[in-house]
Amino acid sequence: MEVLLLTDTVDDFWPSAVGEFKGKTFKSVTRAGQDLGNIKSADEEKKDDTVPARKAKMASLIALMKLTLGDEVKDVRASAG
After folding, report:
1. Which 8-state DSSP code applies to residue 12?
2. What angle is formed at CA 77 by the lines to CA 73 and CA 79, rounded to 5 degrees?
3. Bridge partners of residue 24, in order along the sequence
4. How do residues 35-71 score in pLDDT, each as one tens digit?
5. Which residues contact 79 (CB under 8 A, 6 or more apart)?
6. Please, what sign has the CA dihedral across residues 45, 46, 47, 49?
7. What is the DSSP letter of 8?
8. For a Cys staple, 36 with which of 4, 43, 78, 79, CB 3.0–4.6 Å?
9. How many CA atoms lie within 13 A of 63 on its CB side?
């Protein structure tokens, strides 16, 4: 998955206004309800991890991101999928 990090205030509406570039569609992950569930991670490709192990890893990652980013973000959450 390619990610474009946009940090200016104007960047909130920019992805929906532009739409796409060179065949790549822009989608804002700041908008609630974005479905990222169909994107396969390396862990899902391997199928080595059990569901509880993946949930524990995700919880640890979210906690680390919240701690690291502090007041820079409103919330950190996993997408459904």
Report:
1. G
2. 135
3. 21
4. 666 666 665 655 555 778 888 888 999 999 999 999 9
5. 34, 35, 36, 37
6. negative
7. S
8. 79
9. 6
